[in-house]
Amino acid sequence: MRFILRPLALLLPVILALPASAQNYPNRTVRLIVPFGAGGPADVYARILAQHLSEETKQSFVVEDRPGAGSLIGTDAVAKSAPDGYTLLVMSNTHTTNESLIPNKPYQLMRDFVPVASINYSDLLLVVNPEVPVKSVAELIALAKKDPGKLNYASSGPGTPYHMAGELFKAMSGTDIVHVPHKASGDMRNSVLSGNVQMMFDAITVMSQMAQAGKVRALATSGIKRNPLTPDLPTVGETVPGYESTIWIGLMAPKGTPKEVVTFLNTSINKILERSDVKEAWLKQGAIPMVMTPEEFDAYLRQDIEKWAHVLKVSGTKIE
What we know:
The chain is α/β, with parallel strands linked by helices. It has 12 helices and 10 strands. Helix 1 packs parallel to helix 10 (259-273), helix 4 crosses helix 12 and helix 7 crosses helix 12.
């Protein structure tokens, strides 16, 4: 019996060590990398989520913005990080679009990352600089068709929801509007606010207040039905039947991250998303919480990759 117990005693520390990191997680600062510019929806909601997670776990969750190259710079940094749950990626449908738009990336989304949790989704707002002489989607289309290639629309980079919303609009409305990509969403907004670029699609969570203040003129929202924040504003689809383009945000981790850590994060995040105060606050901003298991989010991501691959093919969109 003594000879049997001795090997077990030697193995016991190894056995206990296997789940220890997950059981103690997190025991130091967790970084949420946002591969987009400050002030955009990913940045805003990552900071809200980080605050709630810090309060719940008693450990620091901090947000780091690493914009550039349409999200590639920050995303690649996370892909190369240790798969221990301490470096996470805040991502969006920019990433599912880029799977087809930029096939030669240094990473592949579903190969190099694991889904952790979905966060929320929101409509986009189609806005123009107040100097543009249009007050409706129909008038915008008429102006674009009158002077093909004269109107410009801004985005925060290739593959971003703002870029794809614009390309989908062009394809479905039969217009020739020039895409002007920017490094970050803040740069995109400044271009339209200054009048250097005439129009853009932007998250309603960010742009609605600017529209109310008269800094831009809102023409329509991008969802299937009118947004409760702007009930008097029509959808693009009311003029261009079938049009729909929204923005959603989620969280992924480097492949190899322990399943126990992924499960812990998913459970913690879903608990936050289901809080009534969070739902109410986000709804007032135009954001709807998305609650999914890692497996459900995995399926959602794969479906979205297929959706945007089809849109890219039909619209003929390529990187400028």
